[in-house]
Amino acid sequence: MNKATRKAIIAGNWKMNMTPSEAAVAVKKTAELVEGKNGCEVVLCVPFVDIAAAVEAAKGTNVKIGAQNVHFEAKGAFTGEISAAMLVECGVEYVVIGHSERRQYFGETDETVNKRTKAALAAGLKVLLCLGEVRDERLAGITDEVVSMQTKLDLAGISAEDMKNVIIAYEPVWAIGTGLTATPEQADETCGVIRATIAKLYGNDVAEATTIQYGGSMNDQNAAELLSKYHVDGGLIGGASLVPEKFDAIVTAAQ
Ligand code: PGA
C-alpha cells in the first residue's frame, strides 16, 4: 500500500455557513462539477440543520455528506448535542472530529476527541480526525512532538480494524483561515510524522493504508502541489469549499 493505492479524500468543511436552502443549491452545483471525477472521494461536511437538504441534493451523485461534530454518549440529557445514531439515520457517512475551532472555542480536549471518535466508529461513521500544532509550537520546534502526542491520545483504544474508517486531517492551526499555507514540504514532513506514529501504534501496513489529509488555506492555486506530496492524501478545505468552482478545482487537482 502506498500513495497510489491509498484512498484520496477531498472534504469540504463548511463550518457555520449556508442555510438549508443555500446548502441544497451548493451541493447540487458541486455535484454537477465533480461528476465523474472518481479519482478521489468527495465529501461535504455541513451544519447539522443542513444535513437533510444536503443528503437529498447529493442523492445519486458522487458527493458524500458529513457532519462537523458528534457527541460521545448514545442518548440522554445532553442539551444541544447530536448522537452518532442520529447522524447515521439522516444519511451522514463522515464526521469531522477535533477540529481546532472546537478545541479552541468549545473546550474540546484529546480525551473528548477520543471518546467522540470511538462513538462515531461504533455507529459506522467514517471519522475525519483533525489535529495540528499552533503557531507557538511550530516556532518552538516542537511540531513533531505535538502531532505525535495528539495522534496517540486521540487514537487511544481504537483498534487496527477501526483504523480503516479513520482519516487523519493534519491542520496546522496557524494556517486555518489565515491565508497562510504550510509549504508542501512542511505538510509532507508533518503528515509523515503522523504516519510514523500510526506505524508505531499499529504497524506499517495500517500506517501505509491510512489516508492523511492536509488542511489550512488549501485552495485552487496551491492544491496540486500539496497533493503531489507522498504523505498528503487529500485535503480538508474550509473557505474554498464554499465556492463550488474553487472546490471542484481542488477535486480536479486530486485526480
Ligand atoms: P481553511 O479551513 O481552508 O478555511 O483554512 C480549513 C479547515 O478549518 O478545515
Helical fraction = 40-55%
**Rough shape?**
globular
CATH architecture: Alpha-Beta Barrel
> pLDDT below 50 for ≥5 consecutive residues: which ranges?
none
Which ligands are bound? 2-phosphoglycolic acid
Gap between N and C termini: 18 Å
Give the C-alpha Rg: 17 Å
Structural class, please?
alpha/beta
User: What is the number of domains?
Assistant: 1
DSSP summary, beta strand count: 8
Subunit arrangement of the protein: single chain
Q: Biggest sheet, strands in spatial order?
A: 1-2-3-4-5-6-7-8
Structure annotation, total helices: 11
Indicate the CATH class: Alpha Beta
CATH domain topology: TIM Barrel
Overview of this protein structure:
The mean pLDDT is 97. This protein is an alpha/beta fold. The chain has one domain: Aldolase class I (TIM Barrel, Alpha-Beta Barrel), CATH 3.20.20.70. The chain has helices at 20-34, 51-58, 84-89, 100-105, 110-122, 135-139, 143-154, 184-202, 204-209, 223-227, 244-253; strands at residues 9-13, 41-45, 63-67, 94-97, 126-131, 166-170, 212-215, 234-237. It is 41% helix and 15% strand. Helix 3 links the parallel strand 3 (63-67) and strand 4. The longest helix has 19 residues, at 184-202. The chain is built from eleven helices and eight strands.
Which short descriptors sum up this protein?
255 residues; alpha/beta; TIM Barrel; eight-stranded parallel beta barrel; 11 helices
Topology:
Layout: E1 9-13, H1 20-34, E2 41-45, H2 51-58, E3 63-67, H3 84-89, E4 94-97, H4 100-105, H5 110-122, E5 126-131, H6 135-139, H7 143-154, E6 166-170, H8 184-202, H9 204-209, E7 212-215, H10 223-227, E8 234-237, H11 244-253
Parallel strand pairs: 1-2, 1-8, 2-3, 3-4, 4-5, 5-6, 6-7, 7-8
Helix pairs in contact: 1-2, 1-11, 7-8
The protein binds 2-phosphoglycolic acid (PGA).
